[in-house]
Amino acid sequence: MTPDPLAIRFQPTIAPADGRVLLIENSRSYAALLAAELREQLGIGVVIAASLREAQQRLAEDDDYFLALTGLVLPDAGAELITDTLARAGIPMVVATGVYDEAIRSSMADLPIIDYVLKEAPGTIDYLVWLVRRLHRNRTITAMVVDHSLSARARIAAQLKLYGFRVLQADDAASGLLALEEDPAIRLVILDQDLEAEGDAGGIGFIRQARRTHPRGTLSIIGTSSSADPSSVARFLKNGANDFLEKPFSREEFFCRISQNIDNLELIGTLQDLATKDYLTGLPNRRHFLDRAERMLREDKGAVAMAMLDVDHFKHVNDTHGHEAGDEALRAVAATIAAHARPNDVAARFGGEEFCLLAPGLSAEEAETGFERLRQAIAALRIPLRNHTLQLTISIGVCHRGDGDLHALVTEADRLLYLAKARGRDRVVCESQEAVA
Ligand SMILES: Nc1nc2c(ncn2[C@@H]2O[C@H](COP(=O)(O)OP(=O)(O)OP(=O)(O)O)[C@@H](O)[C@H]2O)c(=O)[nH]1
């Protein structure tokens, strides 16, 4: 089946990742300020240690830290001892320090340090909050390195793991494309442009093929190359790469590019969600439903069932229990409809307390029994409110056609819904039962 480019893919509501930050800092006021910002803005746990001894105690008690944010001067230890201790504990570090020079930095080149930040510089707290958010979210994202060279692959994969990503590796375009097809969680590909092998698609071939199913806004492809030929860089970008890095690149540049690309993907996902999802229930909105349904009917000429669903006496729910209870009820109904929908069905909030569902490939009988099951599931809901448990019913109009005219389907399902309401609500009316009083 051709993938549906209109399907909502990238969820900005990132699945919550666990883990806390260990903040090692001898200035109590600075630590308190930074911890408060991290907790407030990101909602993540922060544990403060004011000395190396305290940090060691925290680490012995708990191994749930995904990051150590550390200074380089503590009452009981200096830079080397602090960073060695954290490296041995296997915790990625961000160093925030007032003393910063290239000598210290190059002496720590082999340690798992993600970034160095000058503590007193303006905007440092904001930068650190952004950095921790990025690293926390990376833990829900899969990245893939596609490179012939085992050593280059291992080096890049190790960096990506340090930034929190789950990392896959492929040594040619064909196996990379296969992994992309099999693992929908991949959002980032670091691709060697010089990938060339007999019978293999190569770097450009990888991008062209990947872009058929993964648009720029859902998968970031960053090319790398040791050739400095500017025309090949342009060719790579024109064929669909999001960005490019010339080898050898610094760890710092690599981290900035990766983070910026992933930030952009999330931003696109957020904008896409705002345009296509209903804010209250998370279901597709009416406009998005109409776009997807049009496309489905154009591509699939088989039979489809179209249902319009409307909560009964919903005004009464609002009037009796308040608007917030009404919202809660709409969320519960939407969740039941979404759980009932099969992967290729398109469900949406059509507006107000009205929902719709387009289900391809169902016989008229299957549609009737399916929507009757959905009606019963909604009638069986017990929605907990503050002092009350709410029950609801829903009326459903279902038509079943194969002529591919969406407007006709919606109008007909709406007419049958009106009949269901007129016949007493809490029922499904299909075309076959129209004559039944
Ligand atoms: N809480 C809440 N109420 C909404 C929302 N959208 C629409 N409504 C309410 O839904 C109610 C719809 O009422 P009516 O169209 O009269 O229909 P009904 O009371 O459900 O009656 P029948 O459809 O005839 O069974 C109105 O009171 C709207 O204010 C929403 O997002 N949240």
UniProtKB/TrEMBL annotation:
InterPro entries membership: CheY-like_superfamily (IPR011006), Diguanylate_Cyclase (IPR050469), GGDEF_dom (IPR000160), Nucleotide_cyclase (IPR029787), Rev_trsase/Diguanyl_cyclase (IPR043128), Sig_transdc_resp-reg_receiver (IPR001789)
UniProt enzyme class: transferase
Residues where 4-aspartylphosphate is found: 192
Extent of the signal sequence: none
Highest taxon of source: Bacteria
Catalytic activity field: 2 GTP = 3',3'-c-di-GMP + 2 diphosphate
Any GO BP annotation: cell adhesion involved in single-species biofilm formation
Gene3D superfamilies: 3.30.70.270, 3.40.50.2300
Coiled coil feature spans: none
Location of the Response regulatory domain: 20-134, 142-262
Domain GGDEF per the UniProt entry, residue ranges: 302-433
Enzyme Commission identifier(s): 2.7.7.65
Name recorded for this polypeptide: diguanylate cyclase
Native source organism of the sequence: Lysobacter spongiicola DSM 21749
